[in-house]
Amino acid sequence: MSSDSIDEEARISEERLSDQAAEIICGSIRELAGLKPTVIALPRSATVADAVDAMIENKMGAVLIVEDGQLFGLFTERDILTRVVAAERVPSQTPITEVMTTSPECLSFDDEIVFALNRMTVGGFRHVPILDENGVPTTVVSMRDVVEHIVSFYSNEVFNLPSSPGEGAFSHREGA
Known about the structure:
This protein is an alpha/beta fold. Helix content is 40%, strand content 17%. Strands 1-2-3-4 form a four-stranded mixed beta sheet.
């Protein structure tokens, strides 16, 4: 096989991989398999302790603050660190409304995954509420949902990596 043929085969292979990568992240948010079917919502009267309990119970990194079907805010694990712990606030005495993100950016199920990824990257956040066609919050997309979606297309490559470098470096989940 000539050098030109090899170069041509490599070019074709790269184009196909590029097209596949584009397809993976250009699908709609509803294609994300890891999305929870329900939203973890608390009323505006909740405290930080209530939110932490709900997050632990549901194994979620964010809760929505909702009343009468309206989204008022988003409270995340990052808020716990930066607005509660760092400020030395008492979780059971801190109203969620004082430390939540008000009017968070939202998306719909029909928005593309790449748009959610862009919003999270540019905005510097890891969770985006998803609203239905009536503006009612239905779930939250996390950066983890997007990463798991991408990994599902490359599972052989990701899950069959050799144990080194850094053997044993990831034996425990962060924060677990």
